[in-house]
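Thread: Modeling a multi-component assembly for a lab meeting

Hi all, long-time lurker, first post. My supervisor asked me to bring a structural picture of a complex we are working on to next week's group meeting, and I have zero experience with this. I have the sequence lines for every component (501 residues in total). Could someone generate the structure of the whole assembly? Inputs are pasted exactly as I received them:
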Amino acid sequence: MSIKERLSGNEAVAYAIKQINPDVMPAFPITPSTEIPQLVANYIANGQIDTEFIPVESEHSAMSAAIGASAAGARALTATSSCGMALMWELLYVAASNRLPIALALVNRALTGPININCDHSDSMGAKDAGWIQIYAENNQEVYDNFLQAFRISEHKDVMLPIMVCQDGFITSHALANIELVEDERVKAFVGEYQPENFLLNEQMPMAVGPYAVSNYYMESHRAQVEAMENAKQVILDVAAEFEKISGRKYGFFESYRLDDADYAVVIIGSAAGTTKDAVDELREEGIKAGLLKLRVFRPFPADEIAEALKGKKAVAILDRSETFSTQGGPLTSEVCAALYKRGVNVRAFSYIYGLGGRDYTVEDAKEVYYTVKKATESGEQLSEPVYIGLRSREDD
Amino acid sequence: MANNKPTDISKITEKSPWQELTLGNQIYGPATSKLFNTGEWRTSTPKIDWEKCRQCLLCVPVCPDSSIPVKDSKRLDFDYDHCKGCGICVKACPFGALVMEHHI
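Re: Modeling a multi-component assembly
Sure thing. I ran the full set together rather than chain by chain. Output:
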């Protein structure tokens, strides 16, 4: 029997960490992820788990220590947000290229500046090309479930890549919600022990980690990382299928919400998907065939599956919660459009920016997206893109 | 399952396809750095004047590349396959027995 609880997203992740009982957790506090290491430290102080907690002096050190621990053969993880992740930047690439299956609980928050501590996806989207697997959650249940699956994916011998488990700062990290937890024994059996093939503490076989790769090796190394990302796709699906058996909850690369017969689709990541689902339901009542594709896995990017799911739609609106300053919209827009174009899926795609720095995104906002997209598609009207949701502008007058 | 097979790095070359690199370019097995002749990076070379050397061995522990071999409590000539020519030993020598020769 699963356990019914009420937990915030941070508490849910900390609880997952407690159930996994990893070997090493170096961490440095930063809003809104501070609670995660704080709660794990409590579990350790109470003798509930025997994880080695390292209170480091910065996030750069947190990721460095996680890399060292993982190379030594430990199951290592850390948690951070926003500028904390920005300070890890250099090491994110090191973790990935050294093929170390570290887990990072990322609580998405805007990057300064201007100074802002609220939810948006600038931090993880900025790190999208660092070689990490990225999985996103709509709510506290999903971030808990994703975290339980994280090590199974990253430690798989065909993958061996670090993994970022993301949730929306404050919106899910701090809001309490009902949640179903998996029993300790089932988690333990599901996650298993980390048994690396090679590790620095193996005195029978000394090893060198992270050697210098000159021009004659760097490109081959990156190609090997891409292959691991490609392999991760099947592993993510296999692990999800196995997780469904112990939890009853189903996961894939994305969730299709009333999408199959939809004329107009929104593609979105994170907690705003919940808001959009309400809009979809209301629009369906009004007779508009609205649908939603909520992306769970951004790295590796499931381009084939997304193109297939959006094929035949009258139009698609892609909503980004971070900027690229390319003047072409956000990162999700770029990736989805590339996926459609390269596969010859000729669907009109509109680029939207919403929720930057914690800006509200309401059911009314979501409905307006569908209305606008429908009208523009029917009339052939051009929109000034990206469309900014809730942006104050002189043009409003 | 722990790996017990050392990497044969003679098989990994600049002609190797990407599929034949090790995971994360890791190298398995002890003392493989001996096979990597960093001495070819050298632009300056330390030379020893045996007349002046008192065998105090102060140069030995300061060498970052373990390129001053010691046998029967006496230092031998430099291991030029691995000496990068940093010159720290020259600074450490109290007797002026070591000098740097500059090639450029």
